[in-house]
Specification:
By secondary structure, the chain is α/β, with parallel strands linked by helices. It folds into two domains: 122 residues, Periplasmic binding protein-like II (D-Maltodextrin-Binding Protein, domain 2, 3-Layer(aba) Sandwich); 84 residues, 3-Layer(aba) Sandwich (D-Maltodextrin-Binding Protein, domain 2).
Length: 238
């Protein structure tokens, strides 16, 4: 009986050690081409491919978790997952709450999308943006009236129904929408906000940050990160 108890304890410890190596990758699943849910209900996109490769290089077992954008940082901090890999730009404000890896994209231009043929006052009109984004912060400081929505789809809907004069978002997200809808077009100049996109982690997870930093750097060094950026038309390569 004693030997059985010892054996059971060892199995439990082994299982715990295995679980400790599983990293939960938190993403939104609603911001193509960075991340989205495919027809099979699975996380797909640039960050799915990138994240899977980073986990392989870091020798980690990873599983994917989706979370609404407006609570994505609080749920990381509370331990519902271990990373954020969701098109999140590195900013000083966010860095006060969580930690970031090095960037895996260059700063991506943000662009304004409006109804085709309309003239928009970008500093005095009503501009939509997703809540908690760098674009929302930019609009709030620009003098325009900020109209915030929980999802990126809602920001586009606000332009279509006339609730907002334009939407400000990552150009990579807006380009396929503009290409498919002749009633929408870009307006004004693109703007650069933030310091590129990186993985968010809890400030206490320094070892995990080092592993992912090394994996990101190896992909930069061998050109595979640039290949993914080009494939998914994310923006400028490194």
């Amino acid at each position: 009986m004693k030997n059985l108890m010892i054996a059971t304890a060892l199995v439990a410890l082994s299982a715990g050690a295995g679980l400790a190596q599983t990293v939960r990758m938190g993403t939104e699943g609603a911001y193509p081409p960075y991340n989205y849910i495919d027809d099979n209900g699975q996380v797909a996109g640039f960050e799915r491919e990138l994240g899977d490769e980073l986990c392989k290089r870091a020798e980690l077992t990873c599983e994917w978790v989706t979370n609404d954008w407006d609570s994505i940082i609080p749920n990381l901090v509370s331990g519902n997952y271990d990373t954020i890999i969701a098109g999140m730009s590195i900013t000083d404000e966010r860095d006060e709450v969580i930690d970031f890896t090095q960037n895996y994209t260059q700063p991506d231009p943000s662009a304004y999308l409006a109804k085709a043929g309309t003239e928009v006052d970008l500093t005095g009109g009503v501009i939509a943006a997703q809540t908690g984004t760098i674009q929302a912060s930019y609009i709030a400081q620009s003098g325009a009236t900020l109209l915030e929505f929980a999802t990126p789809e809602e920001t586009i809907g606000a332009v279509r129904n006339g609730e907002a004069d334009a939407v400000l978002a990552d150009r990579a997200y807006l380009e396929p929408i503009a290409a498919e809808d002749a009633d929408l077009d870009f307006t004004g100049d693109s703007v650069l906000i933030g310091g590129g996109v990186g993985m968010g982690l809890r400030e206490s997870d320094a070892e995990l940050k080092e592993k992912f930093n090394a994996a990101i750097q190896s992909m930069k060094d061998d050109g595979s990160l640039n290949a993914l950026i080009t494939k998914w038309e994310i923006g400028e390569t490194f």
